[in-house]
Amino acid sequence: QEFMATNDLMSELQKDSIKLDDDSERKVGFLGPLVSKVKEYQVETIVDTLCTNMLSDKEQLRDISSIGLKTVIGELPPASSGSALAASVCKKITGRLTSAIAKQEDVSVQLEALDIMADMLCRQGGLLVNFHPSILSCLLPQLTSPRLAVRKRTIMALGHLVMSCGNLVFIDLIEHLLTELGRNDNMSTTRTYIQCTAAISRQAGHRIGEYLEKIIPLVVKFCNVDDDELREYCIQAFESFVRRCPKEVYPHVPTVISLCLRYLTYDPNYNYDDEDEDDNAMDAEQNDEDYQGSDDEYSDDDDMSWKVRRAAAKCLDAVVSTRHEMLPEFYRSVSPALVCRFKEREENVKADVFHAYLSLLKQTRPAQSWLADPDAMEQGDTPLTMLQSQVPMIVKALHKQLKEKSVKTRQCCFNMLTELVNVLPGALTQHIPVLIPGIIFSLNDKSSSSNLKIDALACLYVVMVTHPAHAFHAHVPALVPPVVSCVGDPFYKITSEALLVTQQLVIRPLDSQQDGSETFDPSPYINDLFTCTIRRLKAADIDQEVKERAISCMGQIICNLGDRLPTELPGTLLIFLERLKNEITRLTTVKALTLIAGSPLNIDLRPVLPDAVPILASFLRKNQRALKLCTLAALDILSAVTPAMVDAVLAELPPLISESDMHVSQMALSFLSTLAVTHPSSLGQLSGGNILVQLIALVRSPLLQGGALAAMLDFYQALVATDTPGLGYMDLLRMLTGPVYSQNAALPHKQAYCSIAKCVAALTRACPAEGPASFVLYCLHRHSSGGFSSRLLALLSLGEVGHHVDLSSQPELKTVILDAFSSSSEEVKSAASYALGSIAVGNLPEYLPFVLQEISSSKRQYLLLHSLKEIIGSASVAGLKPYVESVWSLLLKHCECQEEGTRNVVAECLGKLTLIDPETLLPRLKGYLLSGSSYARSSVVTAVKFTISDQPQPIDPLLKNCIGDFLKTLEDPDLNVRRVALVTFNSAAHNKPSLIRELLDSVLPHLYNETKVRKELIREVEMGPFKHTVDDGLDLRKAAFECMYTLLDSCLDRLDIFTFLNHVEDGLKDHYDIKMLTFLMLARLSSLCPSAVLQRLDRLVEPLRATCTTKVKANSVKQEFEKQDELKRSAMRAVVALLTIPEAEKSPLMSEFQSQISSNQELAAIFDSIQRDSSSANMESMDTS
Questions:
Q1: pLDDT (tens digit, 9 = 90+) per residue, 1029-1056?
Q2: Which stretches does the entry tag as region Disordered (predicted)?
């Protein structure tokens, strides 16, 4: 049947007299699904017929056939699938099309043919590689066609051709363009050639880069010819070079900027002599009539100068968005020029000028961590300070525009102000009086669209959030009426934005009563604000977002003004109670209640608590995590709860205290600590209850750390302070430690011992009277009598307590600990060294000299040095100062130790000691770089690593001056010293990039040098009958590549990406560990600098392909197979990342690799699973944002 249908269609197509009716339209539509169903030779026949009909002189037949051909091409499987059908169809069509294009008889045939050709090159370009030369030779003559439409479509087709053509064809095309531009026969063709160059750069910027040196001077020359259209095309070409060839265009950027600045103001037929006219003249009504008149005079239809200005604005936008390193220069030259053009008379151009300025502000936003660098602030003119000084000029320009008729212009102004305060919060404080009337003008404007109102409100909101309250006090009378009327607006989006502003209005001007500095009286506005909000709060049939914002806004009103609303308060709280029972609004209501409960006005919530608390308690059972957290915060702050209510809540707590959600546990613990203070009697029921069981289980969790651990310690201290019977000091101590001491069973996690020890110490600190003495005896008893885990816990507990409490009154401690040093268990040994260090912190004069003397005399230096590390890391600076010299000289004796573990501890001690007195000690460290022993040099360089932290520190400026000297060890003859230097460099680049940013030019060559494989470091080792190769340089290379990866995140703007990519490319062919690292780098690079990666794509694809197609020898061990699988997956991740660059799949090598992947079952499966993962990860990151 299918065959018959096709046959009918064939004969129908072959009839010459197809009537153009709905019927034939439908038949053409069927061609799509047919292509994938019928036999190959039938598709070819269909295509053949369509091609013939396309050349017919009957217009209807031509139209239908060309629609048919486009349908067929659209339905063919993509080039990457390697389908034979697509290849044969395209080859068939191509011959017919090239001849149709070349015969310049009928323009409409030519246009259709060019259109289909462009379509086919775009979808299937890779299959036509053999035809590319003939396609090119048929397209080039069309660039001089008398019909502009033909030229335009030819340029589109060429644009698609350069994405997939081979290098020779590309060179031919560029040479042709350069020759023709050089001849410059007539203006019209020159325009076309410039447009064509721009199109090629847009589609294949990564290939045209190397010809820019020849192209740009020609374009600059034509820019100066007096022809507006040509100028527009030239500037558009610059824009595409700037966006697509970042590296090659670099030397020409200043030229491009100066041309753009010149043509941004190019308006030969208009005289802007009103620069300094009276600002108020615009507001006067009678001006409107003249204003209209003046517009008509200048609307000459042949005035094309606006297109030149628009192109210049867009090109500046491109420059500003892509050349981050020139920000200071932009603020000197580009920023003032753009601000001057806010007065542009042509609306479309004005929008582009605004957009360019927005791009400049977005680039300035100090979101990038390395920009908001504390050291950068000292260098005088940073982009932020320059912007700050230009704010008055910007505000003056915007002030005029805010009263413009045009909605689009005013929206641009609001976007500008919003972005400006995001970059510089508080910058408009002086200018609020000038701007508020402009914002109110749009809020009151009857004719304005709802979008404009929404933008105006959103802008007002951001400005209020980022500026101090007093700046708005004078304007509240003017702001309240328009904002109140917006809250009542029927369109929910306006209401929603207006409620946010109301919430700010309430917070801001009204909180001054607490500091008493200003007497601002809110009473005239309370009624209006309350009435408009309560109306929205009561409404049930209203948008979800409005409901939520009305609840938050009312919460804020009560929090700030509750004392002025005595009659309205009870009713409003009852509405809150209703909203608490509704699943959709409960979360927002809990937050609002928390706000009210914390108000300094002490709002009385008792009327609703009996109903509210049981509801809140029930929320603790719900599965919604945010609801649990907010509810715990609310309960924590509600002080007026009765014991009965507390019991209801306590019943819900046990399931919340568990390791499955540490944040919820933390909030539950902090609620319990509050209870211990407000309702100590309620805690009596804990003694036998579930809560303590859960607590003990949580203490043993390996996940307990950070905030949750701190909350746990606070709770134990609060609990022991309540003196509840059955929960005294010794009771709790036994509960915590009993299981370990009595059953002597080892706990599953080492972390648990530390947590228990910390809890014990917290309890001991909370009971200074009975604690320490009984505690030490208890511990020593356990230590002597118990097994391994008892001794471990006893030592850790002694350490934790000794840290805060002076235990020197117990003389036997020293011997007990030194005995433990010879235990058979490594864990007991390290616990003993920690304990000794910690106890020493509690009394330095007693213990530190003892530790130092032991280090000099005994054999157990490694453990004692660990104790010393603990002392240096935890003791107060003042306490350590007197001992610095003796510790320093002791450490130096050990920094040449053979044992690397010991050297590392010594280095850490040296580094941390240097932080105590950097002025004296840092130069000393530097001096040891000259030491003859490579061990000493490596210790010193490692020590520097421990002086760098991600927080600002006093040592930073000193370090910045001399870190270059330490990094000179990258040229050290000793392998190990070089490796350590790389690790230190990596630490600096990661934690405090400002230290090394200025040194990169000198450091990078040495860093890159270490990425090379060194033959002389590879040796063969005989293991029995087998020979095994060992590469001594591997760790060094790995360290170097790790540094490169870190630099991508912290110093991208200082790297020459192309040199960087050369080394990444080498890494792709290196050892397993390094391949894994470079695959990760490729993925990062694809998102950070896609255009550079595109230019190198062909060289990067090859090694990826090699990795994916490597076979493991059949008799290899299991690990080999696992390693190879891991490599494949990582390589595929890199491939998926490369394919996120839009033009990547057009590269012939890449599309060939893709078809290889899809034809290999194993690879296709890996590829699909990774694509699924990456798309779901993107969705998740959108959800959380």
A1: 788 888 889 999 999 999 888 777 778 8
A2: 274-302
